[in-house]
What does this fold into?
Amino acid sequence: MKKVLILCTGNSARSIMAEVLLNQHLGRTCGIGAVSAGISPKGSVDHHAIQALAEDGIETGHLASKGLQDLKESDFDLVVTVCDNVKELCPVLPGAKKVIHIGFDDPEGKPFEAYERTLHQLKNLLVPRVREELCEA
It folds into this structure.
């Protein structure tokens, strides 16, 4: 199994949605297992992120905001930073084989439509990029 870490600041919206999408779209077909974390986790998943995922037919009951210290895994085939703040502050992850950045606007505090837009962007930009990095190599 190829392990992917999606890293952001709060781990409440973008990275959570990315984790779920990668596991759904690339888990079986490509053998990818994605997890997400924040460098300053909020401790809860944004209710609009949960709503956007649920409206897309994705199960959300298992989702939780977590920090790097909460992860059992430390070796990742790919680490993806999804916010510019984390790109600048990204901790050194000695077990990471490759680190890439694909920035997405933070929908937090914005109307629900911003979460739907972020989910759409994650599907159309992040999923194909991770597929390219790990499935077609």
